[in-house]
Amino acid sequence: MDKPANRIVMIVGPTAVGKSDLGIYLAQQLQGEVINGDAYQIYRHMNIGTAKIMPDEMGGIPHHLLDIVDPQMAYSVAKFKAAAEAAITDVSSRRHLPILVGGTGFYLNSLRLNLPLGGKAPPTAVRQRWQAALAENGEHWLWKQLHQQDPVAASQIESANTRRVIRALEVIELTGTRFSEQPQPQPRYETLVIGLTTARPVLYDRINTRVDAMMAAGLENEVANLLKTVPPDAQALQAIGYKELIPYFRGQADLATCVALIKQHSRHFAKRQLTYFRNQMPTHWFDLVAHPEEKTAVVALVRDWLKQPAKGEKHELDR
User: Which residues are annotated as a binding site for substrate?
Assistant: First the structure.
């Protein structure tokens, strides 16, 4: 099948729901290649805790943006966006379909929406003043300030996302116009977003089972080896599955308690992922855990989309 230029597919959803498997299946059916969209699978030597797919599991499909950064190094959404754009160009040059797979919503949305990143930071005094106000009055008060000045922006930003709330308030103060009225960048790619989900109890059980499997596969040793050369406060070690084990190695908690925290934090993260994707990305949802036969429907959806003339992104379609 001929692949229209500047079209990409994204497979999103919570952890432990089968995104990697679907990415490989789609790539096999549609002559595609997989591009990683997970913020921690970019790191070398972090395989078990990130559920990173291994070469013998890739089904012969090329995978990009895995193992590209040492865990001592910091990474950013701007670096991801640049690397992903280069990978998309590479894959598209072979007339293959770029398929981004991952659960890091902001990384993927920065690419989908072509968000401006890495520009000049606002004056420190403005930023520090809002940060001080946040510390004194709390996140709900901060969000109310935004709501008073720009109700539209406030409706799109959760109060807990204080960094984004402060950014919106900074822009309003520096430009004199509402954050929601700022010129919007034009997306570089036409994107079809496939979302995977399943019933909450089933998802949580899969998460708990996956964590047990990670421990059995040697997650404890993986973290121990990382701590030999990587500072505990490194960005890489803030990943779920790694940060929870650090107190164990410091003698501050027993292993069972740390493992229980990994499960709990993973479940909470999955809930946040679902909320983000449902609210921030136009997504076609499938439950392949309950209905694995619907993989063929996913392929059909992508085939039909690739046949259509180039146009803007589709609207959400819940299944």
Answer: 15-20
